Amino acid sequence: MENNVFDQMAKRYDTEERMELAKVVVKAVREELRNSKSKSLIDYGSGTGLVSLELSDVVGSILLVDSSEQMLEVAQAKISHRGISNATVLYADFTQETPELKADIILMSLVLLHIPDTEKILQTLFNMLNEGGKLMIVDFDKNENINHPKVHNGFAHDELKNKLAKAGFKSTEMKTFYHGQCIFMKQDASMFIATSIK
């Protein structure tokens, strides 16, 4: 794997801004996770676990998956420090290889924008979900002010819904739930949450 920019950021990743944004995301995701006590959750692109480790009380188990070993080291330290017994970490990049994993819920929080081939990753995640499982995507709404060679400039709801349907999801509910200042590449932006059922 090429020099992972997230490895270099890992130690200083949990900035105040990121932690504040994570709280907003956690609140939105928690609402979608009612009655999930017995469910298994994969947090794909988990980073340091800012979002999913705050959800360990509402699901049965959490697997934090990331392609940055350093990010996962930080996450593992938090798990140990807080004594979270139902969370584990896995170093993997599903865009390169797909381990034999199954889950009831997969969460991707501000990750899709970093993945060039959106359709391929959605298909991969669809295949990992148990029947009736749920894919939850939190990301930025399409934003014309942003232009970056390595990052999607957010997602239009209709386009993403079409891609999710193409991957096989039966239904998708999508709503914009937050507007913030300077949260996306130093630009004001809004975030959506999309919940798709397999």
Could you characterize the architecture of this molecule?
The chain has helices at 5-9, 16-32, 69-82, 118-128, 157-167, and strands spanning 40-44, 61-66, 87-91, 103-109, 129-140, 171-184, 187-197. The chain has 198 residues and is α/β, with parallel strands linked by helices. It has a seven-stranded mixed β-sheet. Strand 6 and strand 7 (187-197) form a beta hairpin. Helix 4 crosses helix 5. It is globular.
The 3D shape can be described as globular
Radius of gyration: 16 Å
SS content category? alpha/beta
Per DSSP, the total helix count is: 5
Oligomeric state, counting identical vs distinct chains: single chain
What level of helicity do the residues show? Answer: 25-40%
The largest sheet, given as strand count, sense and whether it forms a barrel, is:
7 strands, mixed
The SSE order reads: HHEEHEEHEHEE
Secondary structure tally: strands: 7
End-to-end Cα distance, whole Å, is 31 Å
Low-pLDDT runs of 5+ residues are: none
Question: TL;DR of this structure?
Answer:
The chain is α/β, with parallel strands linked by helices and 198 residues long. It has 5 helices and 7 strands; from the N terminus they run ααββαββαβαββ. A 7-stranded mixed beta sheet has the order 3-2-1-4-5-7-6.
